[in-house]
Specification:
Length: 163
């Protein structure tokens, strides 16, 4: 499968949006590790409807005008990863959850570390809000876009955090 992509500027750096025929497949961070979200070949497509709508919605999110995304998503991963990513989509704007809370939500209370690993491989950051997952003690933990980006996203949503 060949994926379409387009690059957009944002307050957290350049984001590469990637889509299949089914929906948004990835939002890659500037300087993202190539192995974090394995994809096949991509081609630039400024007119791809999912990519155009994703860019519009992300811009509205950063402008403080959007709190819920509606673009179609096409997650690629294991069943376990997909269950974690689906749980991320249930975290309301402006709220956070711990890795342990996500593990309980998906019915795997002892899989806290595996939840952390799946969270780190979330291919659709921002929209599947892995930035809303924090340590049980309230600390900010690893984030593909960097902790400063995570703090910016949480602050944008009205959540007070400290690095």
């Amino acid at each position: 499968m060949t994926y379409a992509h387009r690059i957009m500027p944002s307050p957290v750096g350049r984001l590469t949006l990637v889509a299949s025929d089914k929906g948004l497949t990835a939002i890659l961070w500037e300087g993202d590790r190539p192995d974090r979200v394995p994809l096949g070949p991509t081609r630039e497509d400024r007119d791809h409807p999912v990519l155009a709508e994703t860019e519009r919605q992300i811009a509205a999110y950063f402008a403080g005008e959007l709190t819920r995304f509606t673009v179609p998503l096409d997650f690629n991963g294991t069943d376990f990863q997909k269950s974690v990513w689906a749980a991320l989509l249930t975290i309301p704007f402006g709220e956070t959850r711990s890795y342990a809370e996500i593990a309980h939500q998906i019915g795997r209370p002892k899989a806290v570390r595996a939840v952390g690993a799946a969270n780190g491989r979330n291919p659709i950051s921002i929209i599947a809000p892995c930035h809303r997952v924090i340590g049980s003690n309230g600390s900010l933990t690893g984030f593909a876009g960097g902790l400063e980006a995570k703090q910016l996203l949480l602050s944008l949503e009205g959540h007070r955090t400290l690095l």
